[in-house]
TrEMBL record:
Residues 1-21 form the signal peptide. The chain crosses the membrane at residues 431-452. This is DUF3999 family protein. It comes from the Bacteria. The lineage of its organism: Bacteria, Pseudomonadati, Pseudomonadota, Betaproteobacteria, Burkholderiales. It comes from Pseudoduganella namucuonensis. It holds the Pfam family DUF3999. Keywords: Membrane, Signal, Transmembrane, Transmembrane helix.
Length: 458
C-alpha cells in the first residue's frame, strides 16, 4: 500500500473508531427508559411527543435503542398506517302498501304513482284487469336519491321492524329495485322471522342483505307467508371512510420578529395540520403560515436574503355569536418539516396566537435481547442513520402481527447534562473530534513530506 493510501486509511479508521466509541447513550442529548411488560423478542413503541421535539434530524436518524450494557439494538421506524373503516348510515324508507293480488301474465300489475318535483312518492295505487282477490300484495319503498357514482354510499341491506304486537312471524320476501318506478331489477330474496317465547324474549332475523347497489325505489313481494305492513323499513348505506388518526399536538408561543411571529419547533416533526388558537375572543386573523429556507441566527438576522415558503394561507378566527363560539379548524398541510415556523398576518394586529402543530406519530420496532431495561436515546447532530427496514427487524410479520406486538412503556425524559438542545453538541465530544481531525491532518503532512524526500533521493 502506498504512503498516501496508508494515511487515508489511518484517518478513516480513526474517524470510524471515534464515531463508534461515541455512539453511546451518553452522547445523546435525551434518553428515556423503555420497559417491556412481556418477555418478547420484538417490541414496538408509539413514539412519544418528546422524541419529535428533541430529535435533530428530519427522518429521526439520530434515534437509537440501547440495552443496559450500552449496546445499540436493531430498530426500524414504521410510518403511521392510514386505516379505513366502513361507516353505515341508516336511511328510513317511506312505505306505500300495494293492495290487490294479480296473477297471470307478467306485467299485469300497473302502478299509479304520484310524485313531487324532487321525485318523492306521494301516493301509490294499483289498477288493471284480472284481479282475483283484494288485500295487501306488496310494498313500495321510497328511499330518497343515492346519487353517488362510486361504490361508496350504495345500499347493501334492508332492516325490517314488525308491527307492534306481532309475536311470531315467518315469511320469504323478494326485493326488486328501480330508479323510475317503471323498470324493475331483481335484487334479492330473504327469509324473515320473529319468534317470541313465554319470557317475551325475541329471536329474530330482520335483515335482507344483497350486493351494494344504488337505487331510489324498492318493491317488496311475498313468495311465502302472510303480507303485512311493517312498522318501519330502514336501508343501510355503507361508505368507506378514513379512520381519524390519533394525533399529537404541540402548542407553541410566539416571539415577535419585525412584523412576523416566530415559533421555535423541531425539524423532526412531520406536521400534518396547522392551527392558530387565540386567548382573546372576537378575533379575525388572515395570515400566511410557513417557514424560511434559512432560519434566524445570530440574534434576529439571517446571513442571506430570506426565502419564505408558505404552507397554509387562511383566515383564522375565534368569534362568539348568538351565545355560541366559532373557532377556525386546523388546516391540513400534507407533511411539512421546519425548525422554525413563521406566521405573517395580512393586516397589522397586536394578536399573538398560539401555534398548534399536529402530526401522527410513527411506531418504533426494536429487537430485544433480554438485557433490559432498554434506553431510547435521541438528539445528536452528527449521528448517522442506523435504522433498518421493518422487514429486517421483524421478518415475515404481517401488518396484523405487528399491530399485536407487545408495547414498550416509555419512562420519564432524562436530559443529559452539558448537552444543549439547540445543536445538541457535547463540548467534550467536539474536542475529541477536533483532536482526531488534527491528528489525521498531521499524519497526511508527515507522509507527504516523507514521499517528497523519497522522490528527491530517487
Amino acid at each position: 500500500m502506498s504512503v498516501p493510501r496508508k494515511a487515508c486509511a489511518l484517518l478513516g479508521l480513526s474517524l470510524a473508531l471515534h464515531a463508534t466509541a461515541n455512539d453511546k447513550p451518553s452522547a445523546y442529548a435525551y434518553t428515556m427508559p423503555l420497559t417491556l411488560a412481556a418477555d418478547t423478542g420484538i417490541a414496538s413503541l408509539r413514539l412519544p411527543q418528546a422524541v419529535y421535539i428533541g430529535a435533530m434530524s428530519r427522518d429521526l436518524s439520530d434515534m437509537r435503542v440501547f440495552d443496559r450494557d450500552g449496546n445499540p439494538r436493531p430498530h426500524a421506524i414504521v410510518p403511521p398506517e392510514r386505516k379505513a373503516q366502513t361507516r353505515v348510515d341508516d336511511i328510513p324508507a317511506r312505505v306505500f302498501p300495494l293492495n290487490g293480488a294479480w296473477r297471470g301474465q307478467p306485467g299485469g300489475l300497473w302502478l299509479d304513482v304520484r310524485v313531487d318535483a324532487q321525485g318523492c312518492a306521494l301516493a301509490v295505487a294499483t289498477r288493471g284487469a284480472g284481479r282475483e282477490r283484494e288485500g295487501l300484495s306488496g310494498l313500495i319503498l321510497d328511499l330518497g336519491g343515492i346519487r353517488d357514482d362510486s361504490r361508496d354510499g350504495a345500499i347493501h341491506a334492508l332492516r325490517f321492524e314488525p308491527p307492534h304486537g306481532t309475536s311470531s312471524y315467518t315469511a320469504e320476501l323478494q326485493l326488486e329495485t328501480s330508479d323510475d318506478l317503471q323498470r324493475w331489477e331483481p335484487a334479492a330474496t330473504a327469509e324473515l322471522h320473529w319468534i317470541v317465547n313465554s319470557d317475551e324474549q325475541t329471536l329474530s332475523n330482520n335483515r335482507m342483505e344483497f350486493a351494494p347497489r344504488r337505487f331510489r325505489y324498492a318493491r317488496l313481494s311475498w313468495r311465502r307467508g302472510k303480507p303485512l305492513v311493517f312498522a318501519g323499513v330502514v336501508a343501510e348505506s355503507g361508505k368507506v371512510v378514513e379512520a381519524a388518526p390519533v394525533m399529537e399536538t404541540l402548542s407553541l408561543k410566539p416571539r415577535p420578529v419585525r412584523k412576523e411571529l416566530l415559533y421555535e419547533a423541531s425539524m423532526a416533526i412531520p406536521v400534518e395540520r396547522i392551527g392558530l388558537r387565540f386567548d382573546e375572543t372576537n378575533v379575525v386573523y388572515p395570515a400566511d403560515v410557513g417557514s424560511y429556507l434559512q432560519t434566524y441566527r445570530h440574534g434576529l438576522r439571517r446571513q442571506t436574503a430570506p426565502s419564505f415558503r408558505p404552507v397554509a394561507s387562511s383566515t383564522f378566527y375565534r368569534v362568539r355569536h348568538d351565545g355560541a363560539e366559532r373557532i377556525s379548524r386546523p388546516i391540513p398541510v400534507g407533511e411539512a418539516h421546519a425548525a422554525q415556523w413563521i406566521v405573517r398576518p395580512h393586516v397589522e394586529t397586536n394578536a399573538q396566537p398560539t401555534l398548534q402543530l399536529s402530526w401522527t406519530p410513527a411506531t418504533l420496532l426494536f429487537l430485544a435481547n433480554g438485557k433490559g431495561p432498554y434506553r431510547l436515546a435521541f438528539g445528536k447532530t452528527d449521528a448517522r442513520r442506523t435504522g433498518l427496514a421493518p422487514e429486517q427487524v421483524a421478518p415475515g410479520f404481517t401488518t396484523e402481527e405487528l399491530n399485536r406486538l407487545p408495547q414498550a412503556m416509555a419512562g420519564a425524559l432524562a436530559p443529559r447534562p452539558g448537552l444543549r438542545h439547540a445543536g445538541l453538541s457535547r463540548a467534550g465530544g467536539d474536542i475529541v473530534l477536533w483532536t482526531v481531525l488534527l491528528t489525521g491532518v498531521a499524519l497526511l503532512a508527515f507522509f507527504a513530506l516523507k514521499l517528497l524526500r523519497q522522490i528527491k533521493v530517487s
